[in-house]
Write a structure and sequence with these properties.
heterotetramer, A: alpha/beta, Glutaconate Coenzyme A-transferase, two-stranded antiparallel sheet, 14 strands, B: alpha/beta, 9-stranded mixed beta sheet
Chain lengths: 252, 309, 252, 309
């Protein structure tokens, strides 16, 4: 079956969402992935939306992080401070992040290309990304994979990955044992090698070689001992996505 | 071991001045009903620091935003967590400085109006924060304290290009980020229901309405519906913004159009797309503004054009 | 007409409550005074109760600072943090306080007689008193008047008056232009002389001489140029108190 | 220019440990319904630091309090903003140390049980705070931060005999008091309604329930009524305590007796007077406890004695 790069990303992300876990859901792909996960894999996934919705049943795809669908039949509807403080207290397991640039420690830039005071391209900024990346236990980064995005040095650290390496998060005052967990891209899935905290290839997407991934990564990528192959989107996944979750094809 | 973001505060705060201002505001139950035009001209002057509460296109006070553009402010300073409203104000060159967290069009991509404003230098100063940081800065002001601590922003350029500080916690010795209070000259919030005195109810999630309303020296409320105070008194736990915080109450049905309003109406996707398409260039957005903002005397005229009889 | 010392205190306090002003109302006499004020003098008095009630209509006398009557037909029902922060922001004009001991600067003790770690008599403690005395613009102190209470040095400063004198509140970090406004007692009403911040007699109660007040005050009391005489409780006040507000005579 | 209260923290806090604990708590929807006896024996052990949320005699979890006394704890540490429940626990010698703000009987005067406990030295340590300070300490923990600033407590002995600190604000240079986070081993809250998972609703004012629930490592809820989760999902904005904070849900009709419960019942003034009269001496309060607490197997038996059929 044919599928788009976004559909693949959505399926890979949805499969990572554990049942009975809390996950911070942002606009776009995470919303589609959470909807798909609730439908197929994790009916008791607890989606958390930054403007106040917790534990919604995602019957209709939310279009914004504060729309009615983010607290549809929810267990709790509060506000942004309550949600962000809940994350700061360690309640929220997963967070999903995107970005324009990423380095080998998983630091993310979504603020600016060029200098902050005289930008070449002004990007949308942190939004909740810095908070999600600071407080959630495991952040999962979703990105397109090419050398303009996977860079040895990014222009601006909007959201903390492992900063300058082992121990750097703790030294900066960030909560213990938090940080990037997976990087899911159009080409592959990476984790972070526990000692060096550097990005490591663990699985390639269908039709993608290790060489393709290396060629499209602007820094040295560590290699897992055994590199897995990701399953392509399955029929039931694509059916749920196309015919139920995003019938109007707003995203896919 | 203490550290500071590089930027000076765009909006320095003075808690004593805020207290004195809050003391002077009337505690009497007097009607504050007025038009968008009166609310904006009475409670905003050029150069002021303003804040708009919303979540993306949801519950965004668009009728007030259009009136701000119509009154041709040129040097506003703002707290920017925004989509449609801030893109439009940037397109109309209303803004000179920003405390920035997220400004973009969500699924429709980056805000070209903001890009033009920032990259051209028309917008003179941009200071970085996270979403929670801006909300907590309002919360600090709402609590009447000079700062709140957080573990956000640490270790990043977001901190470096902010006006936050970090200290070692006097209790734990560990590093913590301090967010300075953000007291608005004027806050603008759209609600489901208000009485004429300004007691407000919001359905569902409440974003940062509670915090921002309490952080505002002047507060403009627009409401889908004006209700009797007896309705307020029947369920006082529903009052999220009490009247003594409020200076203007504007009756604004479809006040969030073309965005959505919880329990009232969904987004006008067609109009939104039209706007976002127009916003791509300076010329086309000017045409949009000429027609839909400058070309309309007031919100009633706008709504008559949107929903022709 | 006969009246009790408490009835006099209630009437004196009620007459001080301005219409359209916010007043922090504690248990006991302030509740009776606020009810009386709403009935006779200040129908638009906005009572604020520390556990969350704002703008109640006091149709029935509250018995506790969190009971249903404190938010009867109220404009807003929130919680203690919201209310205390509202005071910290300068919204609340009046606060009413009591205490076991007071000094010439209006500092109050409601914590302990003797030493804090080895108390002779352990008292109920600050409760909201320290907060009210720190944040409200004008605090009105209600007390019995004798030399065991009006002391040159109190055992413990629970709630700040003018501390050690002019400028001391500001130096300590307390909000500008706040502090004790009146001391209303069973014998008299005092204010604080603006320059020295010391307690000053401004009015005596019916049947009380200046000498009586001085004799019952354990420190030197400043004297206003002209000392007023307080009106005794009037028939309409006593009628409202006895036959409407506190019919069950819980307090009077 | 920085200053410290004289006392060490009765309950030192560790934000990392709190985060790790919060992470481990289940996020699954599993029934937490149990009896008072199971809730207390499973989630409180002697020596723990506990907190009880209430306003005076209003919404006070008395059925849980009586169970704590029944289980004969001897060395509890507590945050004390209390009336009836804390007087009773002091009378039963359950308490060894206290963060104290107000403990008294409101219109019925001072707490003689506490006086006996403190003046005799049975209660070994008392640390002073204001009401707002204790609530803000819970709020600091609820926010996941090490402290909150305030302008309360400054310049007084309340500060001197606390564990607060003061610093000069890094933004304004002015003195500000810092209140350390207060993380409870176990919090106890009585609510109007809860589902079996622990999603809770409270009518009217909410005291410090939102803050204390979020500051508790373990949380025992007693509820007048157990409702279906569908009712929770119909009005999620009414949930003040979400289920993932909760460890035990106890169905406790008249759970606040002899105090009152908003929208349910008024105070039992006769019983209260009887208790407060008994509380005047060690002997008479023992007689009361023997009859009404130790003499009752559980809350059902207590209620049957209070409301004989």
């Amino acid at each position: 079956m044919q599928y788009s790069p976004n559909e693949l990303l959505i399926c890979l992300a949805a499969r990572m969402m554990e049942d009975n876990s809390t996950a911070f859901i942002g606009t776009g792909i995470p919303m589609l992935a959470a909807s798909l996960a609730q439908k197929l894999y994790s009916p008791n996934l607890v989606p958390v939306f930054e403007f106040g919705g917790t534990g919604a049943i995602l019957e209709k795809l939310p279009l914004a992080v504060g729309d009615m669908r983010t607290f549809n039949k929810a267990l709790h509807a509060s506000g942004i401070c309550d949600i962000m403080e809940t994350a700061q207290r360690g309640i929220i397991e997963y967070g999903f992040l995107g970005g324009a640039q990423i380095d080998c420690y998983g630091n993310l830039n979504s603020t600016v290309i060029g200098s902050q005071s005289k930008p070449k391209v002004r990007l949308p900024g942190s939004g909740g990304a810095n908070d999600v990346g600071s407080h959630c236990w495991k952040t999962i980064i979703l990105m397109q994979h090419d050398t303009r995005r996977f860079m040895p040095k990014i222009d601006f650290v909007t959201t903390p990955g492992f900063l300058t390496g082992p121990g750097a998060r703790e030294k900066a005052g960030l909560p213990k044992e938090t940080g990037p967990y997976r990087v899911v891209t159009t080409l592959a899935v990476m984790d972070f090698e526990p000692k060096s905290k550097r990005m490591r290839l663990i699985a390639t997407n269908p039709g993608v070689t290790v060489g393709d991934v290396v060629k499209n990564t602007g820094f040295e990528l560590l290699m897992a001992e055994k590199i897995q192959r990701n399953e392509p989107p399955q029929e039931k996944e694509l059916h749920a996505l196309r015919d139920e979750i995003d019938k109007d094809r707003l995203y896919i | 071991m203490s550290d500071s973001g590089t930027y000076e505060l765009i909006q320095p705060f003075d808690l004593e001045d805020f207290r004195a201002h809050n003391r002077k505001k009337t505690k009497a139950l007097t009607s504050k009903l007025m038009s968008e035009s009166d609310a904006v001209s009475r409670f905003i002057k050029d150069g002021d620091y303003i804040g708009i509460e919303l979540y993306g296109t949801v519950r965004c006070p668009m009728s007030i935003t259009r009136e701000i553009i119509r009154q041709r402010f040129k040097r506003l300073r703002m707290a920017g967590q925004g989509v449609l409203e801030i893109d439009m104000m940037a397109a109309a060159n209303c803004i000179k400085a920003l405390d920035w967290t997220y400004i973009g069009l969500e699924v429709y991509g980056v805000s070209n109006s903001m890009r033009r404003g920032v990259e051209s230098g028309y917008i003179e100063k941009v200071v970085e924060w996270s979403n929670a940081a801006i909300a907590w800065r309002f919360k600090a002001a709402a609590m009447g304290v000079p700062f709140l601590p957080t573990r956000s922003m640490l270790g990043t350029d977001t901190f470096k290009y902010s006006s936050a500080k970090s200290i070692n916690c006097p209790f734990t010795g560990k590093k913590v980020c301090l967010l300075p209070a953000l007291i608005l000259d004027t806050g603008i919030i759209h609600v489901n229901r208000a009485d004429k005195y300004g007691n407000c109810q919001i359905d569902g999630i409440s974003g940062f309405a509670a915090e921002m309303s309490r952080a505002s020296k002047n507060l403009i409320i627009s409401a889908e519906e004006i209700i009797d105070t007896d309705e307020i008194r029947k369920a006082p736990e529903k009052t999220i913004i009490p009247y003594y915080l409020v200076d203007a109450v504007v009756h604004a049905p479809f006040g969030s159009h073309p965005g959505e309003m919880v329990n009232c109406y969904e987004r006008d996707e067609k109009h939104l797309k039209m706007y976002f398409e127009a916003a791509k260039s300076e010329e086309t957005v000017k045409t949009y503004l000429d027609k839909w903002v400058y070309g309309m005397k007031n919100n009633e005229e706008y709504l008559n054009a949107i929903f022709p009889k």
